[in-house]
Amino acid sequence: MTTREFDDITLERVREHVWEIAPEGEMEVPARVLASEALLEEIGDDDSLQQLKNAAHLPGMQKYALAMPDAHQGYGFPVGGVGAIDAEDGCISPGAVGFDINCGVRMLRTPLTYDDVRGREEELVDALFDAVPSGLGGGGVVEGSRDAVDGALERGVEWALEEGYATEYDLKHCEDEGRRPDAKPEYVPKKAKDRGMNQMGSLGSGNHFLEVQRVTDTFDDGVADAYGLREGEIVVLIHCGSRGLGHQICSNYVRKIEQEHGELLDRLPDKDLAAAPAGSALAEEYYGAMCAAVNFAWVNRQLITHRTRETLADVFDAVDTDDVELLYDVAHNIAKRETHEVDGEQRELFVHRKGATRAFPAGRAEVPAAYRDVGQPVIIPGSMGAGSYVLKGGDRSLSETFGSTAHGAGRLMSRTQAKQEFWGGDVQDDLAEQEHIYVKANSGATIAEEAPGVYKDIDEVVRVSGDLGIGDKVARTFPVCNIKG
Questions:
Q1: How does this chain assemble (predicted)?
Q2: Residue 173 appears among annotated catalytic residues
Q3: So what's the pLDDT on residue 1?
Q4: How many domains does the chain have?
């Protein structure tokens, strides 16, 4: 089939897994969807395609607005969206970054095997749930002060290292070594800092989690060895972001943009795409505040890592905190100044990734030295019942997606619908009895919202990524126990 219709939107098949909405009206570029037939059918079920088409109107958008294989409806810009916008003549859009700035994932390697953990899952999940704050509201691993928040905002994981919560190894295995140097804490609103003070080192709620997993498969032994992954090994996956601090930054700057750049907003088909023109004072302020929130989120995940190390060492005599190493930490809600080739020229762009993961191939300077010869690790969580994947940045990612791929399985249904379809206690019992996966959360509603049936097929998302050459399979993991907010 070469053409697909969804309501009044027509997509032409460019080649396998690549679908395009032709430019019309004020669209700056075409809109591209990277999906199999099955995933495209699911993406077409909500407003993702219209949101992607709207995003193609953002001034300075280059080549095409993109939706990754896990795309679903978001706020203004679709989740799973990528937009590379000229950093001189374009704009920057808080809506194309998202409210949870630097929501992202990190994976920790441990010296444990599945045999070490089997039979002790409930003890472990209880200990982690007690150790790592989760849920709505305040409470963190450390009692934040204004100085602590400012230090985290400005210096990222370097602040955590100074305070004894991180190691040099952690810095070398984190995206950007855990610090965005463009951070400007002075542009972070006081209310955002106040909210962050009470949430330093916390998971939050929604789809955020800490999950103990076992490596079930490796697909590329050379890369898996470089990543330190072996079948049967226990790893820990942490998924969270900048909490209320990032949300407040996004809210404040969207309002400011509406007030100061109404003429640009009037040209866009959706006010939720509110954007500040590149080079404007407000664009520079937002970028500085956003980068500060990125640093805060890395500190948040680092503090959870610190507490996880302590907990594993307490539960298992054979584990020392130094034995639990960071494989990688990567953001999936962010806009970054990056240089990419466009029309044969190197250009500086604001690459917006909202629910999309950077996936740079081997040789790119931004990839940590430890992985530069094989490619950047890409961590893609699935659902509580389906497992997750570690990929490496694919050789075609730079030309196809500005060095990006999916960030997870992608939702099939809203949280409201999920709570109508599933009962949290039943999901929890079924996972324990059928899959030996132990889940603990603050409420049954949270478990229902994150039931395995709520998500797309992670295997299909990863297959498409591999077929397109934007992210290649390295290893697969499967849940052992999971804590949620």
A1: Monomer.
A2: no
A3: 61
A4: 1
